[in-house]
Amino acid sequence: MLFWSVFGASIASALIPLINIEAILAVSISQAPSATWGLVIAATIGQMLGKILWYWGGMHVDRAPWVSRHLQKPKAKASLDRWHERAEGRPWFTAGLLFVSASIGFPPYAVTAVLAGILRVPFWVFFVTGLLGRGLRFWAVVGGTSSVMHLFQ
What we know:
elongated
């Protein structure tokens, strides 16, 4: 049951950044240390399912009339053009940025997921770098939680 709770919470936290999956994961692991890796997997997969919606939203964001109007403004258009230039023909830069964002959260991964969709980053690049980055992030949470738990034993 805890697995599915963490899984659901991780999807929710991917969609609503105010929900802190790291805190939920840490508390869940402290309650069931034997389920650690299952909970890390649940959080990782759940987060990516939620982030896929951000990615998909980025791919279709230009369908919203107010977004289209905003993207036609010179400043917004110049910014988007700069990102296209940075990403175009530089798959390692793009994958690296997605991985760093997924693992450390800077730039915020929800924003990066939308940008990946707008820039039409191949889905498999987005998904694999996100799985690896989120998995590493949650593995670090596990390590931190374990360290704190040992202090109180």
